[in-house]
Amino acid sequence: MNKRITLFLYLIMFFSVLLFTQKSAYGQETGNVRGIVTDSTNGEALPFCSVYIPELKRGMTTDARGIFLFTGVTTNKRLSIVISYVGYNTKKQYFLVAPQKMTQLKVQLSPSNINIGEVEVEGERVRRENATDINLQKISARQLEALPKSVETDVLRSLQYMPGVQFTGDASARYYVRGGSNNQNLVLIDDAPIYNPYHALGIFSAVDPEMINSMEFYKGAYPTEYSGRLSSVLKIITKDGNRNRMSAQGSLSFLSAKALVEGPIPGGSFMITGRKSISTEILKKFLNDKSYPIDFYDASFKVNYADPAVLKDAKFTLHGFFSGDNLMNNNPLKQDFKWSNTIIGLDYFQLSDSPLFYDVSFNYSKVYGEVFPNDTPTKASQNTVEDACAKVDVKYVYDNKDELNVGFKIQEIHTGLILKNSTGFVSDLGTKGTEISVYLKYMMLRFGNFGADVGTRLNLTRLAGGGFAGMFEPRARFTYRFIPELALKGAWGIYQQELTTISDENEVISLYEPWIITPLYLKPARSIHYTAGIETEFVKDLVINFDGYYKIARDLAVVNDQKIFPEEKDLIPGSSESYGLEVLLKNSQNNLNVNVSYTLSWAFIEANGIRYAPRYDSRHNLNITLDYNLGAGWSASVAWVYNSGHPFTQIRGYCDKLNADAIFTGGLILQSYLPYILLGDRNMARLPDYHRLDITLSKQITFSFMKLYVDLSVINAYDRKNIFYFDRKTGERVNMLPILPTATIKAEL
Amino acid sequence: MKGAVLISVAALFVCCIACQDSVNPKAEMKNQTVFYCFINQDTLFQTAYLSRVYDVNTSNPNDNKADPFVEGAVIRIDYKSNSYLFSDSSVERIDESRYNTPFRFYFNDKLNLKSTVLFDLPMPISVQVSLADGTTLSSNTQTIPSGDILFEKYPMVIPDKANATSETFQWDFFSTKNSVEKYYYLSKLELLYTKRINGADVPMKMEVPVKTIGSGDAEEVRYPEITRQNLVYFSIENIKYVMNKISEGDPDKNNYGVKNMIFTLKIMDKNIAQYYAAGQTFKDEFSMRIDAPDLTNINGGLGMFGIYAQRTKSVGLDRGFAASFGYRYLENK
Predict the structure, then answer these.
(1) CA contacts within 13 A on the Cβ side of A25
(2) Which end of chain A is more exposed for a tag (fewer CB within 10 A), N or C?
């Protein structure tokens, strides 16, 4: 065992001793306050609420479960706590803290259209002071709903308004973060990975926004709790379900019909959602008027049990997600495709009388994809990924506000990739492997104006096998606030990925991207992230963030596009480099919220000795979103997106090329010459700039027995002719989405 | 008034940004020369083709009507300290849809690369093309010691009674065993047969697939691909498939006569193998791939210089096997 691992084990022992021996830094005069914030109408936990104790000038935000915890709180003194959240009435509650006790609070917020006031902003400011949250975007369900709708509210498309996130156009919800490819993004539904989070050729997200409570999106240098991808983490936290009463929702758009049922059960709550495509007409607009018989569905459920009489301070959750897409042409001369996702998860979350949290979860995620060639020359293939993961996460909060996080994860992944080659032989490229990893993170939050977390993951095994791996992924993040209006933030980390898709970035549409475990002949892909940023709020209610990043990746599993013979490797090691500057401006005044983000970025991939800009690279990216509460149930939102042109390869001429078939078919080689397109240097030219304006007008109508939500949207309002791709063979310019009016209607009982 | 100005400015802005930006799919054309020469090691007559890269105003290269052939070049092949110069010539063009001039090419009819001795070794062979404008193209490869090809395993008669499930053809180089991995192979097994048409036995042949998929209208057959493996299997089922196929739908099996099968082995260097295989790749209709690799091994230009050879093996058919299909057995004459 090498020295680094020995050192790591010593560190674990050291922090374990700390965990069980460290007592209050404030002696007997302090206690702890723990609370949960919920929506008064349905009991749904409210994540990311601002929680502030004015007397102590201490603040924080609730976590994804709506929980907050203050340690080392002065005892025997009447204190107040102010809870605020956009879209809810602020609540102030008084409490007393007993020495060496855990004081528990339950706070219910009632929805309101009044914007947050002065006290809440102050609390927000305190909360931000030392939060090591660089690269983190928190998105609540309400914020998601406020964004302009592209046919429907779309979880993944909502990310495009954030700096550092690139899209390649209207026909794909695939996203690219800070120069990383699409398969480097981890998408989690309640801690379970979803391997194909798309519907309908990747045009829409497979995750129904109705099931979402909140989302956390790490654009890079993410903390040690997460692993397995080189670029980003999107964690989707689903709703618990209405704890107060049975309720139902139904909605209809040009794309799908969907329903949600939720309500209380003894000791808990449940939620069930379902969505089904109803028409493919709208898809034709996205696909250059080509008609594809796409049929999709998704469904989810969640059951929570937290009866204090049975489970003291604990919560048990069972959740599931299922989706399927079929593309059945009913024509033997065309291929058929099928995809599905299955996710089942169990979670046990336990609080204790001490400031200790632990969470034990088991998740099973399966993705299945199949290509049916029918009578076409397409090669048949089937891809399966089965991922079973058990993990334990423990968090301890010291009296001095520092936190210790440790965790253990064991993950068994089976991948199956059955391919039929052109001679009809069937080969199974599938494999299986076990990854065992542990992590440790210490968060230093004891100083009011400085916060840091330092930790590492240790991967004990490789998924591809090969015995003990012993690979570290150290990470560090910090925030230093010079003055209340100015903070410097930074993060660094090493990340590893052992699963990859056989995807070809040269394809403008690629609807079948099988996942495989990176074969043993390649090293696991590793990336290093460096990020630094400045957060400012010199003008009241105007937050301006500047973030810079530099990211390099080695041993990327790149599709060998020079592969010609079956015996040559499908994947070759590649590398990537990306860097950029991001600016985010947020302003909330009265009933108007404005977000402006700008990204200046460069991305490069190097493979087979060629360095080129990937297809998703865009030098300038500007997004402006406005949402305005017009009153009386009316609201409006506008989004304008601008991307400078994506790279493409130009034609540099034509030549008459020898048709080699003639040799082998016994034909005449002498005159067997056919015209051929010669390409220039790869991706050296740029397509025209992309820009699009989307407008949504929403109206909420309240009846005694139901609420009705009507959204009218115009996508690409000024009918910009954004180029999708240029077909070299036909000379046809294929444009993206034209102006498209859409509408959705939702009824809530 | 202020409102009207604002609205006008906004309208003008929208008009400006709503329009379609043009895209130039073409980079500036580089004047390059393209050279193709696939040496057939089994003949003395070799051809080469030299042309220029061209452009057209449209996106259809068939719109080019000017023959891009480059004349006046000196093409020289160096082999075993001898130099062979190519001459230019022309023949009547078969397809005049693009160019209505005779088809021009370069040739040499004295380049003898046949192995004359056993234990031959691959020998370097290079080409140099000197253009009138001073440009020089070059490339090189190695000869294939095809005279040393040894069929290590093949059936004496089909079906081989020692191997009930498949017929195996395996080969190697007699002299340099390791060289088997340096070359690429494309094999073909054909049934030679006759069909009586208007009272005359017309010779015909049909290739044996390595795989048949489906049946009826959805039936697909697959033939051997280029491989580096020095063996190929043909299952008895696929041989029977061809035996049945030749007379499919014809109740009078006596119209057919079978005699033997011919196994043909194409041996090629990596240049030709890659060039051929690159043209065989395809994508499904949804995966709109926009880039593909160009293959060239010509220094100073584009194109391909490679070498190939061919060996054949005749294998007889078992008389009883032929009779079991109702066919006449044709005696070797």
Answers:
(1) 11
(2) N
Alpha helices in A641-695 (DSSP H): 661-665
Taking contacts as CB-CB distances below 8 angstroms, the residues of chain A near B47 are: 669-670
Least confident of A193-207, B11-25, B136-150, B283-297: B283-297
A679 closest CB neighbour out of B24, B49, B294: B294
Task: Give the number of other CB atoms < 10 A from CB of residue A633.
Answer: 16
Q: Do A654 and B61 touch (CB under 8 A)?
A: yes
Q: Do A663 and B284 touch (CB under 8 A)?
A: no
Q: How confident is the model at residue A220 (pLDDT cuts 50, 70, 90)?
A: very high
Number of domains in chain A: 3
Residue A742 Cα, gap to closest chain B Cα (Å):
20
A731–B60 CB contact, under 8 Å: yes
pLDDT reported for residue A28: 52
Per-residue pLDDT for B285 more than 50?
Answer: no
A565 vs chain B: nearest CA distance in angstroms? 7
Residues whose CB is less than 8 angstroms from the CB of residue B5 and which lie 6 or more positions away in sequence, other chains included: none
pLDDT at A726: 78
Count Cβ atoms within 10 A of the Cβ of residue A585 and give its class: 0-12 exposed, 13-18 middle, 19 or more buried: middle
Q: Can you give the pTM of this predicted structure?
A: 0.82
The tokens of B35 are what?
Answer: 């050279």
The pair of structure tokens assigned to B223 is 């033939």
> Which chain A residue's Cα is nearest to B30?
A652
Given a cut of 80, is residue B5 above it in pLDDT? no
Supply φ then ψ for residue A273, to 5 degrees: -125, 155
Pairing of strands A30-39, A102-109: parallel
The verdict on B95 touching A (C-beta cutoff 8 Å) is yes
CA distance A613 to A358: 44
Nearest CA in chain B to A290: B286
Which CATH number fits the domain that encloses residue A32? 2.60.40.1120
Minimal-distance CA residue of chain B relative to A692 = B18
**Considering only alpha carbons, which residue of chain A is nearest residue B207?**
A665
- Type of residue at A147: L
List the beta bridge partners of residue A249: A260, A748
3-state secondary structure of B13: helix
pLDDT exceeds cutoff 70 at B332: no
Is ipTM over 0.90? no
Domains and CATH numbers, chain B: 33-142 (2.60.40), 146-268+308-329 (no CATH)
Q: How far, rounded to the nearest angstrom, does the alpha carbon of residue B78 sit from its chain's CA centroid?
A: 25
Which residues constitute the domain of residue A122?
3-128
| Over residues A95-111, mean pLDDT | 85
Lowest mean pLDDT among A261-275, A552-566, B154-168, B202-216: A552-566
B291–A649 C-beta distance less than 8 A:
yes
C-beta atoms of B266 and A664 within 8 A: yes
Residues 265-324 of B with CB under 8 A from A: 266, 272-294, 302-304, 308
Nearest chain A Cα distance for residue B319, angstroms: 30
Q: Would you say residue A360 has pLDDT above 90?
A: yes
CATH number, domain of A146, equals 2.170.130
Look at residue A427 in the predicted model and tell me its pLDDT.
62
Q: Are strands A314-327 and A336-351 parallel, antiparallel or unpaired?
A: antiparallel
Max CA separation in chain A (angstroms): 100
B130 in A contact zone (CB under 8 Å): no
Nearest CA-CA distance, residue A320 and chain B, Å: 31
Q: Do A374 and A519 belong together in one domain?
A: yes
Residue A733 pLDDT more than 90? Answer: no
Which residues of chain A are within 8 Å of residue B210 when distances are taken between CB atoms?
Answer: 423-424
Of the residues A233, A255, A270, the one at which a domain ends: A233
Chain B neighbors of A720, CB-CB under 8 A? 17-18
Q: Do the beta carbons of residue A322 and residue A299 sit within 8 Å?
A: yes
